[in-house]
Amino acid sequence: MTKKPLIPTVLAAAMLLAGCSLIPTYERPAAPVPTTFPGDPAQPAGQAAAALPWQDFFTDPRLSGLIQTALANNRDLRVSVLNIEQARAQFQIERSALFPALGLTGAGSRSSPNAYQAIDPTQGSVSSQYSVNFGFTAWELDFFGRVRALKDQALSQYLATEESRKAAQISLIAAVASGWLTLLADDELLEITRQTMVTRDESVRLTKLRFDNGVSSEIDFQAANSQAETARAAYAQQQRARMQDENALALLLGAPVPAEATAGGTKGLAGIRPMPDVPAGLPSDLLTERPDIRAAEQQLIAANANIGAARANFFPRVSLTSSIGTASSEFSNLFDRGTKAWSFAPTVTLPIFDAGRNIAGLNSAKAGREIAVAQYEKSVQTAFREVADALAGRATLGEQARAQTAQADAEAVRYKLSDLRYRNGIASALDLLDAQRSLFTAQQSAVATRLLQLQNQVTLYKTLGGGWATRNNG
After folding, report:
1. Which of 59, 262, 306, 472 is the most exposed place for a label (fewest CB within 10 A)?
2. What are the residues facing 66 on neighbouring strands?
């Protein structure tokens, strides 16, 4: 009877079990959000935000230059890129365990006394042994998919890190755009306050003249003084806010804010190029268009793969150590004929008792998957809320900005009429001061609401996944 060779049988068994995997079948959790956004908003025509290059959304060349600077210099984005490199290296480490690590080993030893001297008197008192071997050590045969599960986990972690880098870029671009708009609004508010200071100083001069001539009381004069000082205090406060906002933008850029970034005279927010409206689509679109949601799903897939690795710990672990080379008691004869040496040493480890360690590891992996499910669902709910808030802003901020601009225009007319009536002695100083105060407040509110409207457009573009695509790779 012919015996079958042992090694081919072992290799055949390894190939048969190579497809064995204990990773649970992955199923994407159902999105825990409604199928449509609140109010069922009308969808403007246009390209989806996720597919719209940021250069086509932020068309103002001043802002485009700032975004380019931030993408090149921002340290947080640089850390995100380095995290990708680290995760890629970790994946390669786990993947390398699927293959035997081949190496060349040379060894030599001399010892005394020589145990062979009693058998062969010709042997000296010192024993020598030299060897050169080529082979691999403790290569695990992945019969039950433990190594592949760890490789899949590392791969998902790497993909999650790459998606997180995209989310970081989206947030950075939106933050730069919002910071730039804030600076323009600051400049516009400063110009309004300068003009207010001029008009209030003129009111102080006129009231002082009337007071000196006995036409008005000191109460009117001091009230005018109070209004003028209030404007100066507001101007100082706005200067401080402007400098702090510029510092915040410089941190995002990783460089000083260039003077030309806010050039444009006194136009302020009215001088920027408009941003296009983008369709919101459906909440289900967010699952594929938002990198942060894709990152959370990859983390879930990684946790799912970790269960497979934990399950495989309950099964035998087979590893091989094998080498071929030469061995000799004389270094000069190390590569002569008759010095060939080889070894083949399979090892099987079967877990019998570990005080519940493997069971606890599996329970921990299952709990980790449930945590990842909750985090994924939370990311979906957060994205839904962010888009819904931005859509609510788009539906209402336009009308609010229009109304407050109209109010500021009406207050400007009222102030001119009050000033004319006061100069002709028809209206009192209190009427004029009230008109000045109302005009200043209305103008500030109009700028603030216009800023909110523009920033809301940026936020909507960001929350819909816009900001990653570019003309180069979009």
Report:
1. 472
2. none
In this structure, what token pair is assigned to residue 47? 């390209």
CA distance 384 to 40: 13
CA–CA separation, 422 and 426 (whole Å): 6
- pTM given for the model: 0.85
Per residue in 137-150, is it b (16+ CB within 10 Å) or e — as a string? eebbbbbbbbbbbb
Alpha-carbon span 438 to 412, nearest angstrom:
9
Euclidean distance between the first and the last CA atom of the chain, given in angstroms as a whole number = 68
Q: Which amino acid is at 69?
A: T
Q: For residue 155, which of 101, 77, 98 has the smallest C-alpha distance?
A: 98
Residue 118 has pLDDT above 60, yes or no: no
Per-residue pLDDT tens for 207-250? 888 888 887 788 888 888 988 999 999 999 999 999 999 999 99
User: Positive or negative CA dihedral for 309, 311, 317, 318?
Assistant: negative
Q: In whole angstroms, give the CA distance from residue 288 to residue 285.
A: 6
pLDDT recorded at residue 15: 46
CB atoms within 10 A of CB 249: 22
- Give me the sheet containing 102-111, strands edge to edge: 102-111, 127-141, 317-328, 340-349
In 3D space, the residue among 429, 297, 305, 424 whose CA is nearest the CA of residue 372 turns out to be 297
Q: Which two tokens stand for residue 244?
A: 């702090």
Nearest alpha carbon to residue 408 among 196, 239, 183 = 196
The pLDDT tens digits of the residues spanning 187-214 come to 999 999 999 999 989 888 888 888 888 8
Name the β-bridge partners of 131.
Answer: 107, 327
Question: Rounded to whole angstroms, how far apart are CA atoms 216 and 224?
Answer: 12
Structure tokens at 114: 């020589």
